[in-house]
Every structure is written in C-alpha cells, then in structure tokens.
Design a protein that fits this description.
Elements (H helix, E strand, L loop, with lengths): L1 E7 L3 E3 L4 E7 L6 E12 L12 E7 L4 E2 L5 E2 H5 L6 E9 L4 E8 L5 E12 L5 H4 L3
Antiparallel strand pairs: 1-10, 2-10, 3-9, 4-8, 4-10, 5-6, 5-7, 5-9
C-alpha cells in the first residue's frame, strides 16, 4: 500500500555567494518515491520577501546509489517549482529506505536568503497494516 508523504529539507539561511550541503535522511519504514519538488527562497529582511528568481543552484545526490539527480547543479527555479505549481518529475524517483539525499546548494543571489525545499511523493509499504486490513 502507499501513503502520501512530504520530506521537508532542513530550512537554510545562506549568505550571498555561500555554499552549503544539507543531508535529508529517509526513514527506515519504506522506500520513498519522489514525485514533486517544491522550493522557495525569501530575503532575510523584515518582513521577509519572496524572491521570484533566486539564482540559487542546487544539486541532489542519492547517497544510497551515489547517483546525482542532475548532470550538474541547476537553478532552483528550474528544478523545484513553487507551492502553487510544483515541479513534477517525469517519473517517480525511488529513494531507498534509510538512505540519504545530499543537497548541494549555492547562493548566487546578492543577499542572504532563507531557502526551503520539500520533496513530495509517497512511501510504498510491502505489508498492509492491521488497522487497514479490516476496512471494506
């Protein structure tokens, strides 16, 4: 059976020209099939402002298979979409249980940004839980 699931990547405040690596640990209960990527970047001003083209480069590496999802880092806007219109992968990408996705992020914007990324998809379980087996 399948269960819809969201994996938020740790929120990140990244200075102009800053580079960061963020690890996302997948849970051990089931593999995760990623269908969508959502990302947003905000200025750190008060109040924060959404940056429509943040000039942030992202690469995602599946550490379980050592497979990069992109040939080289891509602009966040091109690989993530928004909450209103998320980037939908052409086919689900499977992250094995207990594996890690490594996000390499570079801020080429001219100010410090707060960066948010979320992977949307489903977990695929091999056994039906007892709580669902009696549902008719």
């Amino acid at each position: 059976w399948r269960k819809f699931y969201l994996y938020p990547v740790q929120a990140l405040s990244l200075a102009a020209a800053g580079v960061a690596t963020v690890n996302l640990q997948f849970q051990n209960d089931a593999p995760f099939y990623c269908l969508q990527i959502v990302g947003e970047a905000y200025t750190t001003a008060t109040p924060p402002a959404l940056v429509s083209n943040p000039s942030v480069l992202v690469n995602i590496i599946d550490s379980g298979s050592n497979f990069p999802l992109f040939a080289s880092p891509v602009n966040m806007e091109q690989m993530s979409g928004t909450a209103q219109l998320p980037y939908v992968l052409p086919m689900p990408y499977r992250f094995n249980r207990n594996s890690t996705a490594v996000f390499q992020i570079t801020n080429n914007y001219n100010a410090t940004l707060s960066i948010y990324l979320v992977l949307g998809g489903y977990k695929k379980f091999t056994a039906t839980p007892a709580s669902l087996s009696s549902v008719g």
